[in-house]
Specification:
Length: 132
């Protein structure tokens, strides 16, 4: 089964204007757990690194984009296409390189679940965002 990169993943952590949660401040998000699922193989717990995701992601709210936290020479960036505030949470969505993604984040705790899917596989990622 194909692994995902931050660009393909569109990360999951495209945490755009979470205005009630984070106003104009940038966020630092930790990607804590990954689950990889395939129609033929079922679901398997994976480390974040084993599915080619960085352990941390930086979210620039003003630019509506996310990027791998760390080395700027290899840094990949993804754009947030849709932000929908909803009852104490924010739902983010986008698509990139043949995969769609969605993030559901609690405004009060910063905890989120992200789902990434294409026609052959899906990934669920759990994490938490903070103001650095």
């Amino acid at each position: 089964m194909n692994r995902i990169s931050l660009a393909k993943f569109s990360l999951l952590f495209a945490l755009a204007p979470l205005s009630a949660y984070c106003a104009e401040a940038p966020l630092l998000c930790a990607l804590n757990q990954a689950i990889e699922c395939g129609a033929e193989t079922g679901c398997v717990n994976r480390s974040v690194e084993s599915v080619n995701l960085p352990p941390f992601v930086h979210v620039d709210l003003e630019k509506k984009q996310i990027s791998a936290f760390g080395n700027s020479e290899t840094q990949q960036t993804t754009v947030i296409e849709k932000v929908a505030p909803f009852a104490g949470k924010v739902i983010l969505q986008g698509a990139e390189k043949g995969r769609g993604w969605s993030i559901d984040m609690a405004k009060d705790s910063g905890k989120f679940t992200a789902a990434i899917a294409d026609d052959r596989a899906g990934f669920v990622i759990f994490g938490t965002c903070i103001h650095p």
